[in-house]
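Session log. Operator J.P. requested a structure for one protein chain; no other inputs attached. Running the standard single-chain path with token output.
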Amino acid sequence: MKYKGYESVIKYSDEDQTFVGEVINTQDILIFEGNNVAEIEASFHAVVDDYLKDCCAEKKTPNKPFSGHFVMRIKPELHRELFIKAKHAGLSLNAFVSNKLSDVTLCK
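Structure written below.
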């Protein structure tokens, strides 16, 4: 499910005989539950809305879904090889690596 830019995964709990969801594209922990589709969707919307209200009340910036920035440590030799390949392709290193990652993850 998606709501206000936040995404969730939902699993069924045999133990509790209910559906349990978790917002997955934020670093904060947001959990919700429901017994059917309507309840789980309403619970998901409520947890996101409450989270945003709480952040506002605490004058805290909500942890937004991922920005697209991440730091990665690699061997200097690989860094150099990627840089050279990017230049040969007429791309920045970021664009080159982003394209390669997209090839692996989006084009299955």
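Operator note: Strands lie at 2-3, 6-13, 18-23, 31-34.
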